[in-house]
Write a structure and sequence with these properties.
CATH topology of one domain in chain B: Rossmann fold
Number of strands of chain B: 14
Structural class of chain A: mainly alpha
Helix content of chain A: over 70%
Order of helices and strands of chain B: EEEHEEHEHHHEHEHEEHEHEEHEH
Shape of chain B: globular
CATH architecture of one domain in chain B: 3-Layer(aba) Sandwich
Largest interface: A-B, 47 and 63 residues
Strand order of the largest sheet of chain B: 6-7-8-3-9-10
Oligomer: heterodimer
Shape of chain A: elongated
Strand content of chain A: under 5%
Chain lengths: 281, 331
Amino acid sequence: MSASPTMQGSFTPADEAAVRRAISSTSRPPAPGPLSAALTFGWRGMLKVKHVPEQLLDVTITPVMFVLMFTYLFGGAIAGSTGEYLDYILPGILVMSVLFTTVYSGVALNTDLTKGVVDRFRSLPIWRPAPLLGSLLGDSVRYLISGTVIILLGVVLGYRPDAGVVGVLAALALVVVFAFGLSWVFTTLGLVLRSPNAVMNAGFMGIFPLTFLSNVFVDPETLPSALEAFVRVNPISILATASRGLMEGNAEGGDIAVVLAVAVALTAVFAPMTTRRYRRG
Amino acid sequence: MTTTSSLAIEATGLVKSFDQTRAVDGVDLAVRRGSVYGVLGPNGAGKTTTIRMLATLIRPDAGTARVLGHDIVQEAHAVRALVSLTGQLASVDEDLTGRENLILLGRLLGLGRPAAKARATELLEAFGLAEAAGRLVKQYSGGMRRRLDIAASIVVTPELMFLDEPTTGLDPRSRNQVWDIIRALVAEGTTILLCTQYLEEADQLADGIAVIDDGRVIAEGTPGQLKASVGTGALHVRLLDPGQRTAAEQVLARELGTVTLPADPAALSVSCAEADRGAEAIAVLARSGVRIADFALGQPSLDEVFLALTGHPAEAGPGEPTAAVEEEEVV
């Protein structure tokens, strides 16, 4: 070939000495602890948000549209006034938007698997679940952002929760904990299904009806009795009720306990399943 | 460190099947510490599957292997602590910058934050990536990506490095840069298992080569031994005027023996074990009025070795690695 000397790029034979120096200049540190490794993967998730902030649009625009549409289109019809309906629906939409975001955890994992970098992670001497746990910790920050946007919008529209800032933060924390548990379901899907699109479709096929067949949008009293029975036991209803309670200062401990128990159960079942499949690759 | 064995890799009877296909069908390997061992074969021969087993990414269905003295199944974690992998798909995160990739790996290998940052800077400079450090890897050229990939593999210098087709898809200049880096690694004592479908690459870099086809090792030895096993060397001649080939064939046949005629209408090859007899034949040919464009006397190429061993040519295009010239790697 006929490369002229000016085409040598930024790498020249003189760099060989630098390469050799770089090779010989490290000694092996002790492997990082599980938490440190997981947090490093969480940091990786944050960096992606930094580089591709557009991905936050998905998780913020949709709930904003839902808040506006439901409040002003249906508020009067459902609750008599938009203001009253906002009190009812805002904690519900908080739940919905954060839970929708969990589907993206599975999509992101599936996308990751199609790339070579996962092989490198799997060949590192780190605690095996660290990449998964870390990316879900990173995702939890996205859940927080999504939740915060909803609450701020609510406040702008006139939502004034009785339990104040503390109540709102408690509700937000409860929703994020539940979302963390639920996202293990979608990471499992992310490892089983073939493409990111398939994960997205399957995820929403599950989460969409489950969210609508809950008390997020309407009080179940008006529903046919069979449906009403389902809506009452749907964990998403219980989560929505508990969130409303925390924000209004009248939460029932039982609801909160059920929500936490479901989150723990989902994690206990699906986290090991995800880890095992991830290890096998 | 943990063993006195002089072998970095000892594999016996490795088998791995996917669905109905036996991707790897009883591979034995013995790789000396401090050497570069080439695993040579066409696409689909089982190279990547073998490397993935040895790097503990997948478990073998049968057979055993010890890497740096540790069993790849029972002591996978210990193996992981000593090796690094540069996969066939670039094993770096395209959605991060080059610097972030190296810091990420430094942290995951146990370096503290300042140490990881310093190490990233050092490697970016050594690998000629300092200017591109803050750019996202998806904007990198194929050669830059590969260099970053290798830099990522030595954030903490491994005792054994798996390199899976490190120059596939690179242009010749980037390929030479990668080769220089590999030579530097070897000079510093790293053992390298190099999978490649390029015969020239194995010839250039490897001390020992296993030729693998259909999941089996079909030949093993130094590049010289493999070539010798195919037979004697050959004299290759190209003419300025293809019309003179018949005349040239007669001269060479008289001087050296049976002439083979390659597809190129201006080329001739004749087997020739001794260099001085080859030189004489060229002199006779030139005096006879045949105009010679160029000639070469050499041992058989690994291309010929592969053809002789498998009965089919290596499928990596027309033999020369320089034939793959796309700078942008197909992802």
